[in-house]
Amino acid sequence: MYSKEDFIEVIQANAGLIYKVTKIYTDSKDDEDDLYQEIVYQLWRSFDSFRNDSKITTWMYRIALNTCIAHLNKAKRRGAHVPIDDVLLNMADTRDTLKEERMEVLYAQIKKLTTVEKGIILLYLEGKTYDEIACIYDEIACITGFTATNVGTRLGRIKQKIIAQIN
Q1: How far apart are CA 157 and CA 54, in angstroms?
Q2: 18 and 63, same domain (yes or no)
Q3: Is the pTM value of this prediction over 0.85?
Q4: What residues pair up with 140 in beta bridges, in sequence order?
Q5: Closest to 122 in 3D by CA, of 160, 73, 65, 40
Q6: Are residues 59 and 120 in the same domain?
Q7: Running along the chain, 167 residues long, what does each successive block of 10 average in pLDDT?
């Protein structure tokens, strides 16, 4: 049995993991915030069931990716909408560094990928091995059957796709 403090510590230690997942699967800051909150809620609901069979980050990725897939499916049923935030439209751009620009280009290209491709490239960029990526996806109910070799093949195709989109 885990305590509330244990959960808070895990969330604080891995907030970046959740943020990266939400950034890739959403198009607006409001959606990022909503999805972040939903992922934390789902992690809280599942926290007592974590059995230490895998690393805590692997478990968190499973929950986060499942939550994102459910969120995307729900959004498809609702239809598309484009929010316009007046505050953002009137804000001056104070951060204009090369690294930030490159990250935005990369995120924009990743957002064009399929749901599965987004998850694979996210895990790859996080430094996960092919075996770890295959393990994470084996437990996602709606996406099964990836072997480490299949992950490697898909990553190669994803990289080519991103490079082609940028050029």
Answers
A1: 28
A2: yes
A3: no
A4: 143
A5: 65
A6: no
A7: 85 92 89 93 90 84 88 68 54 66 86 87 84 66 61 89 85
